[in-house]
Q: What sequence folds into this?
């Protein structure tokens, strides 16, 4: 691609209508008309291309798909109603009863539930392994393994998985590697370039970037998406609405710019937290002593906007930090221009058993911050108010 990444984010994937509008048009229409019965028949049979019905063809949604595909360096994208419906569509399109999946332990909690509690009812078995333990991934491979699923950096501990190594492992066993690229986005990491077969997105997070809409997408090669995923979307209908697609298009315009700014803010905050007397540990792959710092520096353009840290004193101390903030939004959402703060052990990972949480390294004293674009000094002041109260009797 000859264009630069910022230009792609602003202009790729869309053509003006004859009205010559400067901002993308929204097409809030359920269906499209045909000039004749013959044209209708040709469209339905696939002989002629063109819109039919917005469950599976809509110009605004297509513009979002085309732009995201260009940004991820993929041939084709398929937009969905949410990040979870992207992962569901992926599994329904590519897996069948009897297949086996290997999934990282460090994925979004609902993704874990989808594999462990929903797909298991349809004869798809999933094993969970540590994202950074390549030997464990290799040991979990079975003849029926068809998919490896990983999220990197992981949530909330910012562990970095080696995409190239996992892709090689998958391909040696006739399986596909799927990477949930929610935390970095195409602005910081392009999994397809490291050998991944499919990228999945929750557009709800950084792609929107301002906490407005729920949506998702899959990006990959046109053959796989058209042959396996699109028929499921067309038949089952977990479709993105045209209005949401338009909001996400606006989000993509500033994605590269925002991700650079989020990364800069988070790096500065991570360094500050590390010096703070109330903080016992900081999780951020940009810190030189992060266990996968070198891999993150190679695989990503920057280290992203999510910082987690631990305070001594377990859950009561972590809750005191959160409850003494006045500006940060207490919410499980992330990837917003406004900073958010979360206690993973009692929210996003609250349904995981305490033993399993400990095994995953998600301790009671852990706090996750999605670092927004407010003035850094204001974020620090707000956290400091909480941190200075985190001790006993605070
Ligand atoms: C939020 C999230 C999802 C699910 O997306 P929804 O849009 O909420 O359905 C999947 N993966 C990751 C990493 C997420 O953060």
A:
């Amino acid at each position: 691609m000859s264009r630069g990444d910022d230009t792609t984010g602003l202009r790729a994937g869309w053509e003006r209508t004859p009205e010559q509008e400067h901002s993308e048009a929204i097409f809030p229409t359920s269906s499209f008309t045909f000039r004749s019965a013959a044209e209708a028949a040709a469209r339905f049979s696939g002989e002629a291309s063109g819109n039919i019905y917005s469950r599976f063809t809509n110009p605004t949604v297509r513009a979002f798909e085309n732009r995201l595909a260009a940004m991820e360096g993929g041939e084709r994208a398929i937009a969905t109603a949410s990040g979870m419906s992207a992962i569901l569509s992926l599994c329904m399109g590519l897996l069948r009863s009897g297949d086996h999946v290997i999934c990282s332990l460090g994925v979004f909690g609902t993704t874990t539930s989808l594999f462990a509690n929903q797909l298991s009812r349809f004869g798809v078995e999933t094993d969970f392994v540590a994202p950074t333990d390549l030997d464990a991934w290799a040991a979990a491979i079975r003849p029926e393994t068809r998919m490896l699923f990983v999220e990197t950096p992981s949530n909330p501990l910012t562990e970095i998985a080696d995409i190239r190594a996992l892709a090689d492992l998958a391909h040696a066993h006739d399986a596909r590697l799927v990477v949930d690229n929610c935390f970095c986005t195409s602005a910081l990491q392009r999994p397809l370039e490291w050998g991944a077969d499919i990228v999945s997105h929750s557009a709800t997070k950084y792609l929107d970037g301002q906490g407005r809409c729920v949506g998702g997408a899959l990006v990959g090669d046109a053959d796989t998406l058209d042959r396996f995923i699109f028929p499921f979307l067309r038949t089952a209908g977990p479709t993105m609405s045209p209005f949401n697609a338009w909001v996400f298009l606006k989000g993509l315009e500033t994605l590269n710019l925002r991700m650079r700014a989020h990364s800069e803010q988070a790096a500065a905050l991570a360094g500050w937290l590390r010096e703070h007397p109330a903080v016992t540990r900081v999780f951020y792959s940009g810190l030189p002593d992060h266990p996968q710092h070198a891999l993150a520096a190679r695989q990503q353009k920057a280290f992203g906007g999510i910082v987690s840290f631990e305070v001594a004193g377990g859950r009561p101390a972590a809750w005191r930090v959160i409850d003494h903030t006045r500006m940060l939004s207490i919410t499980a959402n992330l990837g917003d221009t406004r900073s958010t703060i979360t206690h993973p052990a009692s929210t996003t990972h609250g349904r995981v058993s305490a033993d399993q949480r400990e095994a995953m390294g998600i301790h009671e004293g852990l706090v996750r911050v999605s670092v927004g674009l407010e003035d850094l000094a204001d974020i620090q002041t707000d956290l400091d108010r909480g941190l200075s109260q985190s001790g006993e009797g605070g």
Q: What stands out?
A: The first helix runs from residue 5 to 11. The pocket of pyridoxal-5'-phosphate is lined by residues 82-84, 108, 110-111, 151, 155, 180, 182, 202, 204-205, 214, 216 (CB under 6 Å). Residues 200 and 218 are 5 Å apart (CA to CA). The mean pLDDT is 95.
